[in-house]
Design goal:
This protein has 218 residues and is an alpha/beta fold. It is built from seven helices and seven strands; from the N terminus they run E-H-E-E-E-E-H-E-H-H-H-E-H-H.
Length: 218
């Protein structure tokens, strides 16, 4: 694994997390190490972080320019795209990997997906409403789409360029997510009703094969 910011690991901070939450996260990061394209370390000060996970349940609002991702026990009661807390392993893996990719491409912490120049077929802008509870059978494409939309709305054309997939395949995945009530069009299209998802499986079952599906083995 190779760090993508100079010669240091990427830095992850958490705001509003308990000590038990942080201990659990440290263990999860250690287990995910072989699956990540860059090394990560957990630090205390969000102002020095490349990515900050914010517990919205505690009303935390840290200062600093790091990319921020909210998480909550009931994410649908908070802004769109909020992660579940306790953190689901596939969510954490996808978000860390998308952040690693952005820094590897020279994007700063505030960067958002850019619209491909001259792409007249990009389509309407889409935003993430919520992550699905059940990710055990999620494809590499689905996990990448969810991770990109976690940070900013994007069109099908933008997603395809960002992920490196065929636009038709991305459009098909977006349509599936829309049917599940997880994605909506920014232009004002009413979101579909939330669908009850199956219970979350254990992290061992989720991590098995995720690295291969996401393409993060070096």
């Amino acid at each position: 694994m190779t760090p993508v910011v100079g010669h240091r690991p990427l830095r992850l901070a958490c705001a509003g997390f308990s000590e038990s939450d942080l201990d659990s996260l440290r263990g999860t990061l250690a287990r995910l190490g072989p699956y990540l394209r860059a090394s990560w370390e957990l630090i205390d000060d969000p102002r020095d972080a490349d990515l900050c996970l914010v517990s919205l349940d505690t009303g935390s609002a840290p200062a600093g320019g790091a990319r921020r991702v909210g998480c909550a026990a009931r994410p649908r009661e908070f802004p769109r795209g909020t992660l579940y807390r306790p953190l689901r392993v596939p969510q954490l893996l996808a978000v860390l990997s998308e952040t690693s990719r952005a820094f590897a491409e020279g994007a700063g912490p505030e960067a958002t997906p850019a619209q491909p120049a001259g792409d007249t077929q990009a389509g309407p802008t889409l935003r993430l409403l919520a992550w699905p509870l059940d990710l055990e059978g999620a494809s590499r494409l689905r996990l990448h789409v969810l991770a990109v939309l976690t940070f900013a709305p994007a069109s099908v054309g933008t997603l395809a360029a960002r992920i490196g997939e065929d636009a038709a395949a991305v459009a098909s995945e977006i349509e599936a997510l829309r049917r599940e009530g997880l994605v909506e069009q920014v232009a004002g299209e009413a979101p579909a009703a939330p669908r009850q998802a199956p219970p979350q499986a254990s992290w061992r079952g989720l991590v098995r094969g995720l690295g291969q599906r996401l393409g993060f083995f070096l």
